[in-house]
């Protein structure tokens, strides 16, 4: 039973007590129970629990449900951590193999080769030796796949809420904003606006009530970074929100999350409940006099609600449609009160920055992009999954060194970066160090981090049509340039892909794209033409081949 914490000392005492309990010579078996459920992880976990009990191994083995462990291509995945020994990684685990894992690996220390990751015909049993993991730098995802997301005790054991306590008792709000600004943290959800500057606007805004919103409306095709963070480490987001709330002077927060993310919602709901019971949310938190509480708002899955003003309208109970800015949410947002909105990954960066300091954080990444970025690596690549690397890592390193390259005999053709708001980056830019500006220079955007790899068999005109179908369907229809512009562009792309294109169609597409970009009300319409323009820029020959 969770006991209320009335002071900073109580938090430290709880941490020490949890540490002591955990320091046992048990083998830890960690099973991904989020995305891996689709391929039988629940059954594997149940069989493990049954066998451990049946063989009376409870004092020797601990089975832990975790969030995403990253290498989704090998799902269902698990790691086995013997005391004082390297982690063993097993993939494509099935129920029938569980007795062998217990008898051979857990009890005898022997590796089962057929479950190991393989590269160039070589079996690699230990997680630290697998290039997919060894070439990453997990900062935001440091707890995902390691701790039980439903256990606040395990989060606290791993330095959880230490940064919040530091922000609460050692730093004033201006100093918190100063640290975040100095660290160079930029929004991880889209345009990369400086987070400290954004917080400063809201803190200075006039208003007795200020709101803090976590934007978890992740709708890009192929993107699941925010979902994975909420599923695997929900307390990191709550801690980031607590620090942000103290910085801007807010006592009320919302997490706007898609209803089609049931595991994320359940884990977040459980985490909020646990934090309240421990007095880490609510009134007079840790006896400091600081008040802040959270509420979950579930969205219906409209892509446009990722836009700040549409998201605010949705929370207010209205149809999720954007409005012109100014006024900006920092001055007039939710119910016309000053409101700060950050996405999940941005907020999950905050605790580590406060804990380690701005100088430490700035050592990661590039001059224009500090820290790390999480990418959802999907498409025609061997190691699909969740990847966290420092800004400045090249596309080649992500796709080939970490992702294992393109399977089969087909070569790399392009990578769609930034989802429907982004663009296709061709092979000639594989060695471009990725950060906000460099990606924009080649016609894409960082966006939320969706990264879809395409091989030489992919039709880039079809890709362009696919993304235009998506944004045309997701357009809220409020402004004419977006509503009509995306429809006209889609009609033109359908015509071309049917082989009915005529000379002048590409020029028409460019003109319509320009008008839609410059005249649309919100980011959806302003970025909708990006996939079209980038494919025309780099793969014009494919358009010409389809036009008579």
Automatic annotation (TrEMBL):
CDD domains found in the cross-reference section: TRX_Fd_family (cd02980)
GO MF, any single term: NADH dehydrogenase (ubiquinone) activity
Protein's UniProt name: NADH:ubiquinone oxidoreductase, NADH-binding (51 kD) subunit
Residue ranges of every copy of the NADH-ubiquinone oxidoreductase 51kDa subunit iron-sulphur binding domain listed in the record: 461-506
Species this chain originates from: Candidatus Scalindua japonica
Family: Belongs to the complex I 51 kDa subunit family.
Domain of life the protein comes from: Bacteria
Record has Disulfide bond as a keyword: no
Keyword Iron recorded: yes
InterPro entries linked to this entry: NADH-UbQ_OxRdtase_51kDa_CS (IPR001949), Nuo51_FMN-bd (IPR011538), Nuo51_FMN-bd_sf (IPR037225), Nuop51_4Fe4S-bd (IPR019575), Nuop51_4Fe4S-bd_sf (IPR037207), Thioredoxin-like_sf (IPR036249)
Any Pfam family: 2Fe-2S_thioredx
Keyword annotations of the record: 4Fe-4S, Iron, Iron-sulfur, Metal-binding, Ubiquinone
Entries under NCBIfam families matching the protein: PRK13596.1
